[in-house]
Specification:
Oligomer: single chain
Structural class: alpha/beta
Strand order of the largest sheet: 8-25-24-23-9-20-22-21
Shape: elongated
Number of helices: 31
Radius of gyration: 35 Å
Amino acid sequence: MLYFTKTKEQALKNLNSNPEKGLTLDQIKKRHQEFGLNKFTEKKPPSAFIIFLKQFNNIFTYILLAAAAVSFVMRENKDAIVILAAVVINVIIGFIQESKAQNTITALKKIVETTAKVLRDGQVQVINTQQLVPGDIVLIDAGDKIPADARLIEAFNFQVDEAALTGESKHEDKEAGLTLKKGTLLADRKNMVYMGTVASAGKAKAIVTTISNKTEIGKIATLVEETKEDKTPLQKKVKKLSIQISFIISILLLVIIIGGLLTGRSLAEMFMFAVAIAVGAIPEGLLIAVTVILAIGMRRILKRKALVRELVAAETLGSTSVICTDKTGTITTGQMTVKKIINASGHEARDNNLEQILKIGLLCNDVQIDNHSKFIGDPTEIALARAAQKASLNKKELTQDLKLVAEIPFDPYAKYMSVAYKENTSTLIYTKGATEQMLNFSKQIYLGQNNIQPLTPEKKDELLKINADLSQKGYRVLSCAYKKLDGDKLDIKKVCCENLIFAGLIAIRDPIRPGVKEAIELCQQAGIEIKMITGDHKLTAKAIGHDIGLEAGSDEILEGEEFSKFSYEELKNKIPKTKIFARVEPKNKLQIVDILQDQQKVVAMTGDGVNDAPALKSADIGIAVGSGTEVAKDASDMVLLDNDFKSIEKAVEEGRGIFDNIRKVVLYLFSDLFQEVILIGGSLLLGLPLLISPVQILWVNLAEDSLPSFALAFEKKEKDVMKRPPFKLRDPILNYEMKTLIVIITIVSDFVLLALGYYFWKKTGDLNLTRSIVFTGLAIDSLFFIYNCRSMRKALWRFNPFSNRFLTFSTIFGFALTLVALYIPLFQNILG
């Protein structure tokens, strides 16, 4: 039932509950049986054993296992053991990489692990929130977490911070007496409170309407659980490359075995050729090298104040083509601040004008200060208190000779708050609220000490225009007025609404973070689209967009309520063109991400609230802010430690460097791969025996190539990375330029190696010696070629060959391992 469309009496009747006594014990027992506990159902994560078994489920592993099996059958036990060792290394690394905690639902559960005050059998009880049932009467005070979705039946100056659920930065005023129409957005349901949000002011009594997975936050939990976590662009590209290589290997094996048999070679010999081809064609060190590159990239990104939670996400950053960013806390500071104070003459307030306006804002204010000197209360009132504090105004000092005798709390419908202080035989009235109301209540204006002038119709229109201009620019505007009367027996409700003296306007705003505009400009120069998604109103969002350089026309702004008006096909056309999304709900955020991904965009989504979790999980790269909820963090791939959009731009820059380095490793390893395959095929075509054995190939691939390929992870990103367009989803890891380089190096190297092999075999007839010569040539060639892979855009002689000390060390170590293989007896024996 849509309880926000019902009166509180209808809600009580439908849920069969007494507002003064609550449910009976018998009712509670029956409802526990019917509805269960107020907690989310959890999906059991896969066991470590299942994750381990999954590592064997890839085509390269199948090929290597088949090669090991053939080696055992052919009694080549040393080859088989070494091949199996290579499989085990890759499986262990994959297991470590994929063993991640499934914490999203657990974090959602933590939100509701609280106690609640309830009325049961006429008594107030404190119970675990899991024990709540529909119909329970809950009592809520400022600071309490809302334990379930509930319909208000009483509310006293009650406000709720719903940012975690709706994304709205303003604390929402709530009222029990309202009945709302069907279709009212979640953020506008003033007569409801929702699980996981926090009461920020006042007190209330409410009747529980929904618990567990059926609550609004529960629906998000279900969305998070059901949201498919798609593979990253890197995972997709590696999979595609694996399939292509496997297809090539299969064709080569078939051609070589059939060709060899037709030319009179024995089946046993051809099986050894097949094993060599299988081992040579698989880049055993690729997974390890990519893992090292990603891990080092993660550390570099961490230095830029962003924590990447999963390795593959580090590379995905470099492919990002769209950033969907939350406003509050990421683009803005998340802290309401007084930005402008306008006096009654329409100019910036100074001196006495400024002091009088700030004094009214401070004294007509409900903000409290805790024992840590921290302000507690509504963000707008906190902003007023901070502004007064900066002007050296102290509430305790100002009220030393004053006594608060009456107060009218802020009413969202009356749109004002008023207080009365007794001063000797007089009464001071201080009132603040909507500018229209304050001007309607006022007859005079304050222009400075001893300078009070009449409020003329012309001046009123001028001040209303200033108010409208500030509102259009995204400011939250309120005005202040006051009055001094003789006597203390006054009807404050009457006197605060007539003959006031208008003091001025205060413009408040959540300020833009320093450097955000420049960071957005850099992203746009790099070909990345920026889309702002916020729970705030359209005008506020548009004004913020203007300030950060994200100019949006009326056809480039989409509000949450409009989503239901468009068909899916219409949304597919509209969303890519939209720059600002305002007043959106969780399902809308998910639609935005999904539609952009359908159009081959790599989407980074930022967020901080529970409401962002499904979209964060669905996005190619989910980015949670450090001050956000645990739910958002656990659903994300990256956490901004400083909440700053600039850190996203820096992380994208590092991500592009990571992808560059991955391409360098692929170029290096695949050059060796094709050299080895052509070398084996050339041996067959020239009528020679197998010029290099499978175990020797594994030694070159794992022992000598791996460390230099790891060293490529330490290559610094090139200076132009943010001047290039993003990598496209369809762009393969191996592009045309890389394939050309591979072909050239393979032809040149294999010509030399085959010539060496042919010469020594024909000259000596010693297969071990011939293989040792070819093995040494292949090892030395790969150790020199690594230097050509350090840049895809610069020639070898344009950078210092020793600038990467890790590469220098790994090359020296590679030569040392070649000597170990050739001259240490144990390894001579293993490698033949």
